[in-house]
């Protein structure tokens, strides 16, 4: 904030007119004052010794006991030694001018008295100033007050209250808040002592009125300026300048000082703000020397004196410089005359100098030509390096294309091998199954053949017995027929019907038995479905266990980035860090540099990357061998080592932004890791589409998107499985990707998100497990139903057995009746029984023989069929094995080819990096050479702007030899002169310039000294005038104020001795008395006299603020009333001034109160705190 340049601090001390009759007393202020950089003025003590004063009084015979006591007190204030007064300084002699301006005090007093008498008694109503008025004071945690707020009136304020109510704290707060020092308050040595006990900080806020045409920066502050000061127990302190709205304008103390100086508030002036102690000393106990000190401080005489003394010291310093300037000018004049004379006497050698100049020009431009030849060579080097880069780029593109083709072949071969491997088990199972069925069928054929031979012999024997018994029965029946008649025939018919019933039941039993295989097959199928369901549940439990292990390891390895790698990886990393033999430190494992942003693809990408995530990246073949040695010593076998080129891959061919690629879902910490994954896995051209249908639509419906070689999708039936979809020239391929079962090696963007994803996956697996268990229970119920149907079928079969047994019992009953017909002769029945047994045996063996024959034929067909199937399965299995062998050989060959192509591509990248580095070095060399050429050209142009012609055959060396030869001749010629032409010309030019500058500086300094002398003398003259007028005004005003009560007295101002003495005669009837010393007055009379003295000095001061603490403490009621009314009257005559007067006594009843007087009552602070607590 700029300092104020107008208003009170920049007024003239007094008018330039020296006519005493027209002079008026106004406030004095110095424009030289700077509080922070003020020099201490040298002052002399103009006081006479106490001893000489006492001797003079003894000679006059007027000394008394009270005067002796006063003289003893004055001895304490005298700073002179008993040896006498020291001599005055030159400045003090100029300032005081023999005190001639103080010789006519009678005339000065007469004129001051006339001005007082001519002043009207009533000036009209006291008017409120538009600015420089304190509107309010707020104290927080200040002294013994938690919060103290006082709103002040614009004119006259009486603050009354008991001790401890905060009256004096208000004046202390004003002094401190407006930038005063703590020591000036006489209430504490530092700010920390003003912080309320038990608190750590305190705040003081003063609000200053800021209105009218001469307001201080009204566009910034508005109608009020708020000054806030805060300080703490630790000693820190700060200021804030705020606008009326509370907006902070500044926090610099210098800006606060500018505001205080602008409004001339003078809070450090001991008479402007009289604290309790200063008021007591001034009003009651001050010695003449102390009172004089108050007088010169209050009227700013002392401050002006110190500022003018600083000006005198500056003047003396410049006069000393003038003396040294004069001596220097004489020496410089002689030096310039000699240099000019030597320059004039310099011989002319124009032709030789011109020739040397031509040679110098040729030498300068020949160096340029030489450097330009070198620059052209550097440009040729750059073109050669660019050619290498172009060839390397073409090689890389070709190798990348070849590697891509080989990658496709490797991928196709691996996919074909995977498909064949997955089908191998099926072919093996088919071959084993066909062989087993064939061997079982052969065994059945042998068994049936043996059975057929045995049954055929039994059948022949049974047939012979049937024929034999039939003949015997026919003979016996013929015999019996002749004996019994038709009854026997009837029983035989019944027997035949009963046998037919047995046959019907047997036929029904046979038909019932034919449905048994169907029921058995249904039960078997249901049982197989249950077993298949058990296998699925078993696999699902395995998946759940694997997911739980993955969740557990992920949670456990949350803070271990190497949990998914071999256990000795940390040891390897320590070895790498400690090994200084690497040209470039290897980085790895690669998985620790890869961060997956989408955990859904974790398992699939871990499987796709395979062992690459365990690998390390090195910068050269030597680093690869060195790292491989470390791995062998630690026993690390599953970590590959990739060689990365120096220059990172650029211009990657990526698909459209709407597709996620493997590269886009990864955050890779190192570009070398990215390049390895791009080269080995084409991560920038493999897109990720979660839906299989969407992936197939993108890849198979027409041509695949541009720059897309494959698509990874989620399996639509197997969780954590993936699918790889490819379309190469219309050849569509789909291959499964099994889930990764190891620990996660890639970093997750958010471990918690990955854990939550695994938890969701685990919950989904458990839900699928519950669905499978429900399906198994359904299938088990189906098996149970089949078992129930089979049991029912068996029960029905048992019923048929019962019916057959009952029918056979009827047959036996009828046969028994036939036996009774036969009587005792049981021969026929025996024949029939034997026939029946023989027929039964024949039928049984015939049935068995027929069945065996049919079964043999069918089994023979089955054996042939099984044999044929076995041969085909065996041939197919062998053919499949041959295909697998060929596929393995193809994969091996493709991988070997790919390895060679990868090495060639890496070598091409390394060649490109070397070529780029060479080009960079060549460009840098060209840049440096171009700068060299430009520098040589600039230097040559400085020699001669036009390019010099270089004769053919001339070189820098030949021209330099010619130039040196001429230079030697010139040197010999100049040796007689003692310097070169340039040196002589330069010396002359510099000497003349130095002489002229010295004369100019001497003239300027002489002018400055004259102006300073004139200003100092003018200011000292005005200072003496101000001292004379302010002294006369104070003396006369003091007498005038004493007369308000009928007193008379005299104010003695001894500026030589620096004393101020007061003599007062309370009894104006004693005309002969010269007055009494204040020590002889009563307490009230003494206080009244001191009030008159203070008001007399106040009337000579120009500050808009006057503060006085406990002015009436030693007065009786009469003097108190008179003093109070006198203060009010004086304040009303000081139009626009603000008075803050503090008294512990009541004002009402002893003063003429009007609307311009505001009485502020301060209650005891304990009561105020209690009241505040009650209100809270």
Model description:
The structure is a single chain. Helix 24 (1117-1133) links the parallel strand 22 (1105-1109) and strand 23 (1138-1143). The chain has 25 helices and 24 strands. The two termini are 41 Å apart. The strands form 6 sheets. Strands 2-1-4-5-6-7 form a 6-stranded antiparallel sheet. Strands 8-22-23-3-24 form a 5-stranded parallel sheet, with helices on both faces. Strands 12-14-15-16-17 form a 5-stranded mixed sheet. The radius of gyration is 65 Å and the shape is elongated. It is an alpha/beta fold and 1176 residues long. It is 60% helix and 11% strand. Residues 1-84 and 1165-1176 have low confidence and may be disordered.
């Amino acid at each position: 904030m700029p300092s104020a340049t107008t208003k009170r601090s920049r007024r003239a001390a007094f008018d330039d007119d020296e006519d005493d009759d027209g002079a008026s007393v106004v406030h004095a202020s110095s424009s030289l004052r700077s509080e922070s950089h003020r020099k201490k003025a040298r002052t002399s003590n103009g006081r006479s010794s106490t001893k000489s004063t006492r001797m003079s009084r003894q000679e006059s015979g007027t000394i008394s006991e009270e005067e002796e006591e006063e003289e003893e007190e004055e001895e304490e204030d005298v700073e002179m030694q008993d040896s006498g007064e020291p001599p005055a300084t030159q400045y003090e002699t100029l300032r005081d001018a023999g005190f001639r301006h103080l010789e006519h005090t009678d005339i000065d007093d007469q004129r001051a008295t006339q001005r007082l008498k001519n002043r009207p008694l009533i000036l009209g109503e006291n008017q409120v100033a538009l600015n420089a008025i304190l509107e309010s004071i707020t104290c927080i945690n200040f002294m013994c007050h938690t919060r103290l707020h006082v709103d002040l009136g614009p004119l006259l304020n009486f603050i009354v209250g008991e001790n401890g109510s905060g009256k004096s704290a208000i004046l202390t707060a004003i002094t401190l808040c407006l930038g005063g020092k703590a020591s000036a308050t006489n209430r504490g040595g530092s700010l920390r002592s003003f912080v309320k006990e038990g608190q750590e900080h305190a705040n003081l806020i003063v609000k200053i009125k800021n209105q009218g045409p001469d307001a201080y920066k009204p566009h910034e502050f508005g109608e009020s300026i708020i000054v806030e000061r805060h300080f703490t127990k630790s000693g820190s302190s700060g200021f804030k300048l705020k606008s009326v709205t509370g907006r902070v304008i500044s926090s610099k103390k210098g800006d606060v000082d500018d505001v205080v100086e602008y409004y001339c508030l003078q809070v450090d002036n001991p008479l402007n703000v009289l604290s309790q102690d200063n008021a007591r000393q001034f009003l009651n106990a001050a010695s003449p020397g102390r009172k004089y000190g108050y007088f010169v401080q209050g009227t700013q005489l002392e401050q002006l004196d110190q500022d003018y003394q600083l000006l005198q010291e500056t003047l003396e310093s410049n006069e000393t410089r003038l003396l040294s300037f004069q001596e220097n000018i004489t020496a410089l004049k002689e030096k310039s005359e000699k240099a000019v004379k030597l320059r004039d006497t310099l011989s002319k050698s124009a032709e030789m100098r011109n020739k040397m100049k031509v040679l110098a020009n040729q030498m300068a431009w020949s160096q340029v030509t030489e450097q330009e030849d070198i620059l052209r060579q550097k440009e040729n080097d750059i073109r050669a390096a660019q050619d290498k880069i172009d060839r390397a780029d073409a090689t890389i593109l070709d190798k990348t294309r070849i590697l891509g083709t080989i990658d496709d072949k490797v991928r196709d071969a691996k996919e074909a091998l995977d498909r064949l491997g997955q089908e191998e088990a099926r072919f093996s199972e088919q071959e084993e199954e066909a062989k087993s069925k064939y061997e079982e069928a052969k065994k059945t054929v042998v068994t049936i053949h043996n059975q057929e031979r045995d049954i055929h012999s039994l059948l022949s024997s049974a047939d012979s017995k049937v024929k034999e018994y039939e003949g015997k029965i026919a003979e016996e029946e013929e015999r019996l027929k002749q004996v019994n008649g038709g009854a026997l025939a009837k029983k035989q018919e019944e027997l035949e019907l009963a046998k037919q019933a047995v046959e019907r039941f047997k036929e029904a039993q046979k038909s019932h038995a034919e449905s048994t295989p169907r029921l058995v097959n249904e039960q078997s199928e249901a049982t197989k479905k249950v077993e298949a369901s058990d296998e699925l549940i078993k696999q699902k439990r395995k998946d759940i266990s694997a997911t739980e292990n993955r969740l557990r390891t992920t949670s456990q390895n949350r803070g271990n980035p190497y949990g998914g790698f071999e256990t000795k990886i940390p040891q390897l990393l320590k070895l790498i860090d400690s090994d200084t033999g690497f040209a470039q430190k290897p980085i790895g494992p690669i998985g620790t540099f890869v961060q997956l942003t989408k955990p859904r693809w974790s398992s699939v990408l871990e499987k796709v990357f395979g062992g690459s995530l365990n690998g390390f990246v090195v910068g050269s073949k030597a680093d690869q061998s060195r790292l491989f040695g470390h791995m062998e010593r630690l026993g690390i076998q599953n970590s590959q080592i990739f060689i990365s080129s120096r220059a990172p891959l650029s211009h990657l061919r990526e698909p459209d932004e709407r597709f996620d690629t493997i590269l886009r879902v990864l955050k890779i910490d190192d570009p070398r890791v990215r390049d390895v994954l791009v080269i080995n896995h084409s991560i920038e051209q493999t897109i990720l589409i979660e839906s299989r249908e969407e992936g197939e639509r993108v890849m198979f419906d027409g041509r695949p998107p541009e720059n897309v070689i494959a698509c990874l999708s989620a399996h639509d039936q197997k969780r954590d499985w993936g699918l790889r979809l490819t379309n190469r020239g219309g050849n569509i391929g789909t291959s499964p990707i099994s889930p990764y079962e190891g620990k996660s090696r890639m970093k997750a963007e958010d471990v918690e998100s990955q854990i939550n994803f695994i938890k969701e996956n685990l919950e989904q697996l458990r839900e699928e497990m519950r669905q499978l268990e429900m399906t198994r229970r359904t299938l088990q119920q189906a098996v149970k139903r089949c078992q129930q149907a089979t049991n029912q079928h068996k029960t029905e079969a048992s019923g048929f057995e019962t019916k057959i047994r009952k029918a056979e019992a009827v047959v036996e009953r009828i046969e028994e009746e036939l036996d009774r017909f036969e009587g005792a002769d049981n021969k026929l029945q025996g024949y029939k029984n034997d026939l029946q047994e023989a027929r039964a045996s024949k039928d049984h063996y015939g049935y068995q023989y027929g069945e065996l024959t049919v079964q043999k034929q069918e089994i023979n067909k089955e054996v042939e069929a099984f044999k044929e199937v076995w041969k085909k399965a065996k041939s197919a299995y062998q053919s499949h094995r041959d295909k697998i062998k060929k596929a393995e050989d193809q994969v091996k060959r493709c991988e070997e080819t790919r390895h060679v192509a990868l090495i060639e591509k890496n070598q091409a990248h390394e060649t490109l990096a070397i070529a780029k580095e060479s080009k960079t070095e060549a460009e840098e060399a060209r840049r440096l050479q171009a700068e060299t050429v430009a520098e040589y050209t600039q230097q040559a142009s400085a020699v001669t702007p036009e390019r010099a012609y270089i004769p053919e055959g001339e070189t820098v060396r030949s021209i330099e030899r010619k130039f040196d030869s001429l230079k030697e001749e010139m040197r010999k010629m100049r040796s007689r002169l003692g310097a070169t032409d340039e040196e002589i010309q330069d010396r002359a030019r510099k000497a003349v310039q130095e002489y002229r500058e010295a004369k100019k500086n001497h003239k300027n300094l002489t002018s400055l000294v004259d102006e300073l002398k004139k200003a100092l003398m003018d200011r000292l003259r005005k200072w003496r005038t101000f001292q004379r007028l302010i002294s006369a005004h104070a003396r006369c005003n003091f007498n005038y104020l004493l007369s308000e009560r009928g007193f008379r007295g005299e104010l003695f101002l001894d500026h030589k001795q620096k004393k101020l003495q007061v003599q007062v005669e309370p009894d104006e009837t004693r005309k002969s008395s010269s007055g009494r010393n204040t020590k002889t007055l009563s307490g009230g009379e003494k206080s009244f006299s001191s009030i008159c003295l203070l008001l007399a000095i106040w009337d000579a001061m120009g500050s808009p603020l006057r503060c006085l603490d406990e002015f009436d403490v030693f007065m009786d009621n009469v003097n108190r009333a008179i003093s109070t009314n006198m203060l009010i009257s004086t304040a009303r005559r000081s139009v626009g001034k603000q008075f803050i007067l503090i008294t512990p006594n009541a004002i009402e009843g002893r003063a003429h109160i009007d609307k311009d007087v505001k009485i502020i009552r301060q209650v005891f602070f304990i009561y105020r705190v209690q009241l505040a607590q009650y209100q809270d």
